[in-house]
Structures are given as C-alpha cells and as structure tokens.
C-alpha cells in the first residue's frame, strides 16, 4: 500500500472559508496530525479517524510523525491553519523528507493543499488594505534571530510595503511588537491606519481599527494579525483601504474612463514604467509625484534622529518596591540597545535610544514611577519610613520632592530625609539632611559626601516644627541656586558664604593626619 502526505491549509477557521479540496483531503485521509486547537476546529470532518495532536512548539515531531505513518502506507493529513505554506507545516514536512533522501520520483507522494492565509482573511474583514505591494513578517524570534526580523521590518517600512505582522505577541514574547512599532514610526506617520484582527472567522473574532501611534493600547495576542497600512492607506467609515496605485489611470467620478481598456497598457499611458527609455518632462513629473508621499515622510522621519536619553526612575519617594509591571515596562523601553543601572541614590538610571523622549517620560509616569532628570539636579533620598510604618514624615518628603526634585542646581545635591532618629538611611551624611524625631525635624547642612576626608552635615537646628521644614529647606536651596558658583558643591558653598537660610557655618572637625609606616606600626 502506498502512503501519501496531504499537507492541508484549512483557512482562517470557519468551514465556509475552507476549500473543497481541503475538506476532501481530510475526509480521504486515514490519520490526522495537527496542533490541538486546529484539530478542534475541523473536528467535524475528522470523525472517528485516529488523531495525533501535539502542542504548538512540537512542529518538528509532528512532521516526523507524519512522515513515519506515510511510510507505513497511510494517507496522512497534516493540518495547518491558514495556508500550510505560510509559517505552517509544508516546509517542515519537505525538510524531514529530504533529510531522509526523499525525491519526487522515488519517495512517497506529497500534496500541498492551499488555504486562505491570515493576511487575506484578516484583510477582508478590515476592508481592502492589501491592495498594493504587501509583505508578511512573523515577529516570532523562536526560530529566527531578532536581528534579522528587525532588518526586515525596517526594509519593509522604508519601502512603503503594507505589512501583515504574524505572531505579533504571546505570553512570553511581549517586547517584539513594541520594538516593531518603534521601527515603523521612524518611517511612517503615527496616524498610519493599523488593523488588528483577532481570531478571524472564528467564534471569538474581534476587529479593531487603530493607528500606528495607538496600536499598543489594544489587546494583541497569539491569535492576532496586525496589518499596517502604507503611506496611501486611509480609513473610511471604519474600513481600511489602500488605493490600487500611487498613479491613477482611472477616474472614479466618471462613468466614461479617459483610457479605454485596450489603451491602458500602451507605453504612452504609463510613462513611469521601467521600459520607457526616454526621459521626458512628463515622465519626470509623474515619477516625482508618485514618490512624493513616501519621500516627504521619510525625510521628515529621518530628521527625528535617535539620541541617547538618560533619566532616573524610582517607584516612589518613600516607596522602594517596584511592581513586576513597572519592571517589564522599563525592560521593554530600554530594550537591547539601552542600559539600566542601579544608583546609590535609590534610583534606576536608564539610558535609552529614542527620538521621542517625551513619550517615554509620559509612559513611565503613567506606570506610577517617579521620573527624575540626571545631572546637576536636586535628588531627594528618602528612607522607606520602616516600610511605611513610621509614616508621619512621608508627606514632608513628598512635598520636598514635588517642589525641589529634579531642580537644576550649580552641582548635584542630595537631600536626605529620614523618618526617625535612627536615621539608618544616612540623611546626616548627605549635602543636606533632615531627620524627623519626636514630631519635629532636625536639620543637617553641608555634609561632604565624598572623598577621603568626608564628613557629615552640621547639625544646625533641632526641633523645627513640621509646617516650617519645607519653606526652610526651599529657602536654603534658593540661596544655593542663586549664589552658588557653577560646579560648586553645597558644602563648599556653605563654607564660602558662611550662612544659608539663616544658619551659620562652623568649621568641621577634620580627620587627623596619621603617619603610618610600611608595616602599619
Ligand atoms: N499558516 C497560518 C499562519 C500560522 S502562524 C496562515 O497562513 O494564516 C500563526 C499566526 O497566524 C498567528 O499568530 C496570527 O498572527 C495569524 N493567524 C492565523 N489564523 C488567524 C486568524 N484566524 N485570525 C487572525 N490571525 C490569524
């Protein structure tokens, strides 16, 4: 008995959109092999036949199993959704066969049965977005290096293809779609129409019309195909439509066309085509018009050059606990090309390549993070107030952060705020330190925070009433901001001007010089 491999694409999922040959092939097979979900979608046709179903990632073993049974003389149906030759089983089946020395002549018979792929079923639900040159890109980097995928997205974006993104996102792969959007935005307008189709022609079908800028605000999953328009694609009445050509040989508002059907293919009717050798004025003009849309946009986007953008984030002034969502967002934003570093000031410092720094700040803030600039600015270093238990001091720390955090100063300045007399976060060792104790604040000024001769701040006042602490600190900072020399640290400033916020400077006790011999005696 001669076995046969029937590699079947059953279309998007509904029986109506399956081809007649696909249906027959399943019916005439002895065994059906496929991913569990797919088997369920065509269960009616399978009836009592033996089924070999495996998980999503076991494509290779499915192909090997199929070949094994066909070699034993069975008619084996290998089923894929959409078209079996588009990120489906067809190629794999051939690969397994070829590995075993298969040829068309001598080997078992193979029939590949075409099906309606997601690019086409999803396009139909959206309107007519694939009217012009289009491509499919799978964002799955399980079998393809991300560097290759990134290049393809960039090339397709640059060449103004309509793009269908397959496998855009899964439980574990969430960053790929974010990166894809970032690359696309370098070449296409944020308003480019984008269609999201989930489970086309299946019971949970969901169609969303959005644009490049807002696409990530919607649900995108394993069963979604994302269709990105080209520079001419438009939306009308909820439908996504790409015009048939950049250059119109037809007029839509006239019944009588300027060119009769037989005239349309004449050379003079398409002066922009490759075969035309003579460059006339009209050729140049039409070619220029055709490219205008793409070119202008690319020029505009090219000007938005990516730069390294630095900032620092923390989960809160007193709160030290990042949530998993915040960590995921940060990791996504930083990506492979950026950096994230832990700082001694209870912040994560982020270095990101971007041409849209404002967007990044907005997203981080929306996620509840405190966002701070880097450089010669004031940083509030509050303690965690014993995990929020000693909460009396927190509102003052928050007010000071709100009023002063990130303020540009002659030199970086750390304002330490600790919530009890233990001062275990070391407020006393900062440029300015305040410690909440017995319902009031102690104030320390001019700590020398670095160097071998570092010393703590001077205790200049004890028991400042809570309602006074914010204005007192603001006064000191304003004096420093106005009168400090560029790059002059606060302790140097205090030493030089001898008075800050009305508090008088005293010479610190310096370390004694100890002469030490080679053996430490
Ligand atoms: N062979 C399939 C593609 C398999 S890859 C085909 O030709 O369509 C799996 C991806 O296909 C999914 O992540 C999704 O992007 C897309 N897809 C498959 N069926 C779909 C459907 N019914 N609706 C929307 N997208 C679908």
TrEMBL record:
InterPro entries: 4pyrrol_Mease (IPR000878), 4pyrrol_Methylase_sf (IPR035996), 4pyrrole_Mease_sub1 (IPR014777), 4pyrrole_Mease_sub2 (IPR014776), Cbl_synth_CobJ/CibH_dom (IPR006363), NO2/SO3_Rdtase_4Fe4S_dom (IPR006067), NO2/SO3_Rdtase_4Fe4S_sf (IPR045854), NO2/SO3_Rdtase_FeS/sirohaem_BS (IPR006066). Pfam families: NIR_SIR, TP_methylase. Residues 383-497 form the Nitrite/sulphite reductase 4Fe-4S domain. Its EC number is 2.1.1.131. The keyword Iron applies. Residues 4-214 form the Tetrapyrrole methylase domain. This is Precorrin-3B C(17)-methyltransferase. The keyword Transferase applies. NCBIfam families: cobJ_cbiH (TIGR01466). The gene is cobJ. GO terms for molecular function: precorrin-3B C17-methyltransferase activity. It is an enzyme of class 2 (transferase). Pathway: Cofactor biosynthesis; adenosylcobalamin biosynthesis.
């Amino acid at each position: 008995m001669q076995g046969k491999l029937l590699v079947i694409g059953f279309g998007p999922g509904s029986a109506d959109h399956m081809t007649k040959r696909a249906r027959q092939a399943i019916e005439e097979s002895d065994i059906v092999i496929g991913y569990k979900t797919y088997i369920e979608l065509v269960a009616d046709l399978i009836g009592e036949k033996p089924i070999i179903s495996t998980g999503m990632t076991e494509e290779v073993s499915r192909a090997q199993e199929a070949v094994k049974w066909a070699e034993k003389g069975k008619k084996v149906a290998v089923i894929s959704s959409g078209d079996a030759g588009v990120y489906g089983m067809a190629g794999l089946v051939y690969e397994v066969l070829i590995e075993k020395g298969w040829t068309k002549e001598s080997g078992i018979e193979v029939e590949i049965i075409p099906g309606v792929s997601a690019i086409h079923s999803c396009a139909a639900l959206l309107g007519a977005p694939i009217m012009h040159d289009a491509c499919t890109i799978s964002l799955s980097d399980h079998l393809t290096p991300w560097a290759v995928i990134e290049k393809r997205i960039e090339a397709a974006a640059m060449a103004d293809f309509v793009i269908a993104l397959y496998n855009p996102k899964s439980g574990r792969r969430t960053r790929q779609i974010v990166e894809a959007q970032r690359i696309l935005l370098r070449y296409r307008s944020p308003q480019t129409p984008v269609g999201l189709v989930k489970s086309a022609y299946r019971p949970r079908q969901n169609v969303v019309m959005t644009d490049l800028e807002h696409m990530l605000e919607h649900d995108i999953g394993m069963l979604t195909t994302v269709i990105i328009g080209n520079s001419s694609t438009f939306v009308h009445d909820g439908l996504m439509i790409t015009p048939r050509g950049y250059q119109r040989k037809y007029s839509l508002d006239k019944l009588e066309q300027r060119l009769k059907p037989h005239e349309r293919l004449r050379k003079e009717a398409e002066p922009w085509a490759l075969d035309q050798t003579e460059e006339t004025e009209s050729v140049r003009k039409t070619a220029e018009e055709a490219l205008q849309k793409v070119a202008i946009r690319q020029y505009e986007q090219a000007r938005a050059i990516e730069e390294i953008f630095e900032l620092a984030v923390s989960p809160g002034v007193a709160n030290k606990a990042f949530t998993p969502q915040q960590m995921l967002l940060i990791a996504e934003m930083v990506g492979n090309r950026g950096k994230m570093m832990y700082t001694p000031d209870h912040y994560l410092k982020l270095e990101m390549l971007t041409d849209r720094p404002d967007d990044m700040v907005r997203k981080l803030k929306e996620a509840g993070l405190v966002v701070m600039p880097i450089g010669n600015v004031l940083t509030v270093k509050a303690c965690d107030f014993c995990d929020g238990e000693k909460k009396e001091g927190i509102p003052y720390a928050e007010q000071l952060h709100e009023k002063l955090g990130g303020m540009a100063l002659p030199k970086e300045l750390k304002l330490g705020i600790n919530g009890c007399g233990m001062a275990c976060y070391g407020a006393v060792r900062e440029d300015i330190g305040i410690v909440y104790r017995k319902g009031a604040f102690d104030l320390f000024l001019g700590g020398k925070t670095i160097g071998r001769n570092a010393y703590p701040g001077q205790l200049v006042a004890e028991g400042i009433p809570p309602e006074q602490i914010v204005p007192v600190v603001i006064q000191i900072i304003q004096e420093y901001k106005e009168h400090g020399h560029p790059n002059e640290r606060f302790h140097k400033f205090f030493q030089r001007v001898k008075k800050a916020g009305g508090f008088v400077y005293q010479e610190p006790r310096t370390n004694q010089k100890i002469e030490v011999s080679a053996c430490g005696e």
